Amino acid sequence: MLNNHYTRIGVLIGAVVLSALAVVYAKHQSRKLFIELQTLQKSRDDMAIEWGQLQLEQSTLVTHGRIENIAHARLGMMLPPADAMVMVKP
Q1: Domain spans, the chain
Q2: Prediction pTM value
Q3: Per-residue pLDDT at 1 exceeds 80
């Protein structure tokens, strides 16, 4: 009977130790995943900033004045004089 009592205590101690180890492992995994989450969020934020900068750059590159300057400088194109323009109405 006494031997049976010690066996139960040993099993309970083993269960408590295993439970404690499981808690430590779960906490470690939780911290690892949180660090990975923070890294991914920073990467997302950096990409969002870059996306905004690219959109701003794109809007700057397609302005009418810039296109007109490039057409004049690279292609030698010019606006015709006002009296040479013909307005076509639908």
Answers
A1: 2-77
A2: 0.59
A3: no
